[in-house]
């Protein structure tokens, strides 16, 4: 392999034995003047499977020892792990794609129109006057729009939930970690949990979307979020490993997820009732 005399990124002069540019850190050995398909294949496989800092390595670590992984990252081990924000955007892409294919959020109501095929709408018994019917139509349209919003704009919902949950955790533990550190913790945990929901919950919700099991699945998903988050915080916060301290983490995780749940329900409920926002 020919060793370039100057760094290809910043043109700093390189010595014969330099593995990396002393100025910008770019590899001196593995950077080439022309890009071939074999380089691309190598780079892609490397990014996904490399024992250190790979995408799958991070997933494995977050599945088996999330507390230790995130604690190490916060303590400065950045090169060892895949960047949390790249991780977030890759999973976001997979999430949007899988939701646009599966549409787990009640597709039955996404296509509400006041006039059905027969030209007659079946109103509930208590809806009698034309004014009530008009209001009923309006609300049904908004419900279908809200469901449609969750189907198509999950990326926005996901983007807002991460900084929001981080903010609640910051309010609870502001003496221990900066807001930015909470944001890193929640980016890791939220993204991992969303990946889990893509692989497990979204397909299950799709299968059971018209039965009572879908409510049970939603509850299980919430419970998984709370427990995972509490395990991570129990490890990340440098405190005595006591049952009392764990229960505190469990309580704060519950509050954060609940606050997010209430906020999103208020936003959707507010829209359905008053038609605000959209
Ligand atoms: Zn350089």
UniProtKB/TrEMBL annotation:
Transmembrane portions of the chain: 81-98, 154-173, 185-207, 213-237, 249-272
Alphabetized UniProt keyword annotations: Membrane, Transmembrane, Transmembrane helix
Protein name as annotated: Uncharacterized protein DUF3667
Organism: Mucilaginibacter auburnensis
